Amino acid sequence: MQEWLEDWDAKAPEQTNAHVSHLYAVYPSQQINRRDTPELVAAAKKALTTRGDQALRLGHGLAPGLWARLGDAEHAYAIMTSLLGPARTYPNMFDAHPPFQIDGNFGGATGILEMIVQSWGGEIHLLPALPKAWPQGAVKGVRARGASRLIWPGPTARPSSSA
C-alpha cells in the first residue's frame, strides 16, 4: 500500500515519513477492515510498520486507532503508552509535538475508544483490541453508531451489567 500515485516510496530517502494519510481507508474510515479485506489489512500493517513507531511524530496520535482497527491490541497499547509518556505529553495533557499538535490529543482519545469499541460494517465490536494490560475496568458514556449486529470477543470477555 503506497502513499503516492507513482510507486517511488521504496526509493524515498525518508522511509519513516510521519504522514499516514494513505491509511485513511483503515481508520478513521472503514473501507479496509479485517472482515472484508484481509489482504489490504496486511498491506496496511506493512505500510505502518515501515513508517516505524517512533517516526510517526505527527501521525503518532492516529497510530493507536490504526493498530486497533488492524486488530493488534498490544501494538495499539504500546503506542498509547508512548503517546502518554512525558516525551510526548505535557503535564497539562496537551500533546508535546512542538509547539502543540491537537492531532495527538484527539487521536489519543479516539485511539483508546477504538481499543474498547468499534462501529463499522453494520456491526458494533466490543473489546476489539483489548490489551493484556487492561484485564478489568469500566467505561461509561460511550456511544456507537447503530448496527444490525453486536460482536462479542468471546464468552469470557463479556462486560458486566455495570459496564
Residue windows where pLDDT falls under 50 for at least 5 positions: 158-163
Gyration radius from CA atoms, angstroms: 16 Å
Largest sheet descriptor: 3 strands, mixed
Strand fraction equals 5-15%
Tell me roughly what share of residues is in helical segments: 25-40%
Q: How far is the first residue's CA from the last residue's CA?
A: 38 Å
Classify the secondary structure makeup into a structural class. mainly alpha
Shape: globular
Number of strands: 3
Strand order of the largest sheet: 1-2-3
Average pLDDT taken over every residue: 81
Total number of helices? 4
Q: What string gives the helices and strands in order?
A: HHHHEEE
Protein architecture, described:
The chain has 163 residues and is mainly α. It has 4 helices and 3 strands. It has helices at 38-51, 63-69, 73-83, 102-116; strands spanning 117-120, 123-126, 149-151. A 3-stranded mixed sheet has the order 1-2-3. The longest helix has 15 residues, at 102-116. The termini are far apart. Residues 158-163 have low confidence and may be disordered.
Features:
mainly alpha; 163 residues; 4 helices
Layout: helices, strands, pairs:
Blueprint: H1 38-51, H2 63-69, H3 73-83, H4 102-116, E1 117-120, E2 123-126, E3 149-151
Parallel strand pairs: 2-3
Antiparallel strand pairs: 1-2
Helix pairs in contact: 2-3, 2-4, 3-4
Q: Brief description of this entry?
A:
The chain has 163 residues and is mostly helical. 29% of the residues lie in helices and 7% in strands.
